[in-house]
Amino acid sequence: MRSCFRSGALGALTLAGLLAQGVDPSNGFKVRGEISPATQGMSSLTVELTGSGGGPAEKAEVNPDGTFEIHCVQPGVYELRLTGVAGALVHQQTVMISAGNPAITIRLNEGSPTSAHPSQGTVSIHQLTHKVPPQARKAFDKGEQAKDKGRHEQAAECFRKATTIDPEYADAFSELGAEESAQGDLPHAVEHFQRAIEIAPDHAVAISNLSIALAKMRRYDEASVAARRALQYMPGSGRLRFVLATSLLLSKGDSDEVLSNLERATDEIPRAHLVAARLLMQRGQRTEALQHVESYLHAVPANDQDRAKALAMQAELRP
Fold first, then answer.
1. Are the C-beta atoms of residues 10 and 204 closer than 8 Å to each other?
2. Residues 6+ apart with CB under 8 A from 68
């Protein structure tokens, strides 16, 4: 994926205790559970429990109705993993299984994030369960190969072919939009990001890239809405924080929310220090502004294009 994010894993699962089952002293518990709400494609998912001390994992395939059953589980603390097609991680979290409550309910919410691989983006439930026709997958893979070789026009054509074969192929629309954005064709990029989101409303990669494309088009109100939505999936993304902050600043002016998002973006986007410093100067908070300028100067190389501007700000702010 060019321009910002790649797919990772998504699924919001909250553990609660239900469905108690008896104890077998020699073999351990039989743990039953369910995924709620059950949706199409449940049978493509696998539940896995791994003990905190390592060792073999206990696994169970999920039934079409969202139920599952794991045998021979001893009391203790486990890492729970829910995986999809080709082992794609949907969610993981720590759970405790006890004699009084050897049961699991996984409450699935497509609109909520997971922290499994936040740096790589997320994978929607639609992506995990949608069956892509072989010819569409072949075209998509050719597009990825062309993109990796820097052949971006060819990549775009391959992704476009994949969407023609499979009009529900959200990833292909998202990748097509990324290629168009990289080539400066922002109107078509926005159109294809929006199509990916229509197919898979929780497609975090497409939502993130949409926010950036809208900001580049100076559609700041729409960009801030998209950035807020994307941050529900990638709350640690400094790039998205910067998009949100600058979009709000350019559409609505200075605010505490703008400054907060700029400060949270600085580790990933050092230039956010300079924008924050300028706002603080306008507020009369010169000491805080100087701290941001000096943090910026420490973070960037000597040949950074904004270094001269930062040095001028530093000279202005020093007592």
1. yes
2. 32, 33, 34, 35, 47, 60, 61, 62
Domain range list for the chain: 12-121, 131-235
Lookup: tokens for 59:
């696994």
pLDDT in tens, 18-39: 222 333 434 566 777 887 766 7
| CB 271 within 8 Å of CB 245 | no
Task: Dihedral sign for Cα 23, 27, 29, 33, please.
Answer: negative
Tokens standing for residue 265 = 């973006």
Mean per-residue pLDDT, 292-303:
94
Is this model's pTM higher than 0.85 or not?
A: no
Residue 1 to residue 83: CA distance in whole angstroms: 22
**Residues 308, 313, 318, 319, CA torsion sign:** positive
Query: What Å distances lie between residue 41 and 47, 128, 146, 172, CA to CA?
Result: 14, 8, 31, 20
Give the Cα-Cα-Cα angle 227, 228, 229 (nearest 5 degrees): 90
Q: Which two tokens stand for residue 252?
A: 């609505």
Comparison of pLDDT for 151 and 11, the residue scoring more: 151
Instruction: With residue 95 as reference, give the H or E element that holds it.
Output: strand 89-97
Contact 262, 242 (CB under 8 A): yes
Task: Dig out the tokens for 177 from the structure.
Answer: 């939009």
Q: CA 8 to CA 186: how far, in whole Å? A: 24
- Give backbone dihedrals phi and psi of 133, rounded to 5 degrees, phi first: -60, 145
Residue 4 has pLDDT above 60, yes or no: no
**What fold does the segment set 12-121 form as a domain?**
Immunoglobulin-like (2.60.40)
Which residues neighbour 249 within 8 Å (Cβ) at sequence distance 6 or greater? Answer: 255, 258, 275, 279
**At residue 270, does pLDDT exceed 90?**
yes
Can you identify the CATH homologous superfamily of domain 131-235?
Tetratricopeptide repeat domain (1.25.40.10)
CB 129 within 8 A of CB 57: no
Tokens of 209: 């890239």
- Rounded CA separation 107/11 (Å): 10
